[in-house]
Amino acid sequence: MDFALNAEQQMLHESATRFFADHHPPARARQALSWSDAAQQQLWRDMAEMGWMSLLSSEEQGGLGLGLTEAHLIAEAAGTQLLNLPWASSAVLLPLWLRAAPDDAPALRELARSAAAGERAVHCVSARDRIWDHAGQCTDLVVVRGLEDEGQPLEWSVLPWAPADVQAGLDPTLTQAAAVVPSTACWQALAVPAGARAHARAAWRLMQCAELIGLAQAALALGSGHAVERVQFGKPIGSYQAIKHQLANAWMAVDNARLAALYAGAALDGHLPDARFACAAAEYTAIEGALQATRTVIQVCGGMGFTWEHDAHLYLKRAQHQAARLGGASRALTRVEELVLA
To answer: Which of 6, 215, 257, 332 could make a disulfide contact with 286, Cβ separation 3.0–4.6 Å?
Structure first.
């Protein structure tokens, strides 16, 4: 399969990269703005106007009718600038669920419609989580039972955020809250067929991998720039093997992860028989590549890289946060091994 980016996809990626660089640079990510901030609401509306909230919807439904490769490019560009809005849930997971259950869950469908219009930011989390991120950085929190367990019925409930719930987490660009499902939560079933359910979940996790790849690329650009500009003993530190070999190894890890993720997206879109393995490999390489790259960049930047004033720690902490959301590298590697042995 030829899954190299065509001209239209390259233009989409360049456009998204410029958009997020202009509208959500790391300096803004540091502020960890809540949804109540007018700038966040405007950014979400702008993303909707670009068509990115209805990327996977058909043209008959007013969407762009594109696939997961294009969605990956948006998520990658968003990760580069540490976007702290729940794009993957609103633009990927919900539309794929509702595409498979067109006559089910009218309330959830209305949430998805509002998200596509840029009116609401919907974040989906698992009822099994201990911490929920994007607290206060979305309008609606959809808690799902059976999100990670394919053997459990898929049920959902919308919970409101309370200002007292919001707290700081490991990643300073994101706010979080303790995962507490009230006994009064109203659960509703979502009749998504097993195959479509697995497809949507894999696509949603793949978007998180794309964000990891994007932030790793941004971190490497930061570290490489420093290695070129920082002069020691009359030479740029990037000319020394101890530095350039680390950066080269990190670049290869991230590039491998990107190729794996792009193939996984193409495999999901094409319903290829190896799609499950491709997604598992993409998760493992994305987690490992992002962690290797962000750790390397902090080392390359030296004492400056260890300070909170420098952006390097933002990429590292986001990488650790996303890796934890995906279950960690060990879990991903175990999944790869299981699929190989099967």
So the answer is: 257
